[in-house]
Write a structure and sequence with these properties.
Length: 67
């Protein structure tokens, strides 16, 4: 049986990872439907995905430092 910590870790990594991929799809769809062009699409991805990049960086740093 899985412990509460294992279920939480699984949900955080896999569940949130899947949610982040879905959010990237939403950003791409928004750029496509608004006909943002290359620069507009880049700006959308940079600004809207910036928080996700920070979350991933925090996870990587925590693993490297062993926290």
């Amino acid at each position: 049986m899985w412990s509460e910590e294992q279920v939480s870790e699984f949900g955080l990594t896999v569940g949130l990872g899947g949610f982040m991929l879905f959010m990237l799809f939403i950003i791409w769809n928004l750029a496509r439907e608004s006909r943002a062009g290359r620069m507009g699409t880049f700006i959308l991805f940079f600004v809207l995905a910036f928080g996700m990049i920070g979350f991933v960086a925090k996870s990587i740093i925590a693993r490297v430092l062993g926290i």
